[in-house]
């Protein structure tokens, strides 16, 4: 009698069960969750596609995928869930469950959404957010920066909208190093002063922080108003209000390092849209 | 789509107490945002905070303060805590102090840089930048009044913010 599909490991036609996957991080969504995992080193008999299933606790809601991550839908917003993941071979043999994931609580999407993040991996003089959607009410940028220049106490960052480098910006600012406080204003700048206290490149693991709010950025009936707070306590801190004298919707934002120098690696700027 | 801005935990005091700790903060976000609405049993005083239970001289502040008469600035290096200046209003009527703290890139290996706004209408307003000289992921925030205690009803809410 010819032997077909010889068993591997034991007499079960499907062979040994796959090992348990290694659970990763579960992330909440709106009535759903995304579950990350790492495939086991042994995925069972055969060369067919292995399917991974995430199962919720409570409720037993499932989602399947052939690679990480898995999306599980049908969850109830406001209810906490954990998830386990199993692997099933093309022969239909299911292995042991992973450990349980972290607990997540799905919720409806709010009014604050991430649009894009730019992380500097090597020295660069400027970064630009392009193709900003006009579907929000306001924008917010959270960032941190270090400057490649070595000699001054601290550096700054400036910004322009939509590539406009004309004398179309007004600004009013105050900054301090904790001892002296300086204020100033201008009505025809070629950029906006948004960040101060940016540490020099050799200042260890120090970066200046930035919270920059750009209000009604897509309103074509208004000039664009923004407010920035920034600083690092060992250098300077600053607050500034700026005006771009244009009714165009802001579709791009460029942030430039001081004095022809660069944002160094580790600097990043995260752009968020705020609904209203 | 993951939720970008999520509440992590909130605490409202049912009795007056001098401090609270927000602990077991997950490392799954990019930034943290703390919003506090507080009164103190004496009031008009600073609110202080520490990260990860670190009581070492690893905190630095720089601030600009205004009390309606004068504006001052100051810098503190090597403190054992950071300050929200005038963050707790005196417990009279419906006046409350507000404290907003952004901890930027809290789960990175860099020193932690923070931006805060705080104040109360009875005392003054402050804007500050802070740093914690540690590359550790922030997993707890200890918040205390400079003296006396937070009043009943003081609220502390922590949010996590993802980046794309």
Kindly summarize this structure in a few lines:
The complex is a heterodimer of chains A (276) and B (164). Chain A is mainly β and 276 residues long.
Topology of this structure?
The complex is a heterodimer of chains A (276) and B (164).
Chain A: E1 22-28, E2 32-38, E3 51-57, E4 62-65, E5 70-73, E6 82-88, E7 112-119, E8 126-129, E9 138-145, E10 155-161, E11 169-176, E12 181-189, E13 192-198, E14 208-215, E15 224-231, E16 237-244, E17 253-257, E18 268-274
Antiparallel strand pairs in A: 1-2, 2-5, 3-4, 3-6, 7-18, 8-17, 9-14, 9-18, 10-13, 10-17, 11-12, 11-16, 14-15, 15-16
Chain B: E1 5-12, E2 19-22, E3 31-40, E4 45-51, E5 59-66, E6 71-79, E7 82-90, E8 97-104, E9 112-120, E10 124-132, E11 141-145, E12 155-161
Parallel strand pairs in B: 3-7
Antiparallel strand pairs in B: 1-12, 2-11, 3-8, 3-12, 4-7, 4-11, 5-6, 5-10, 8-9, 9-10
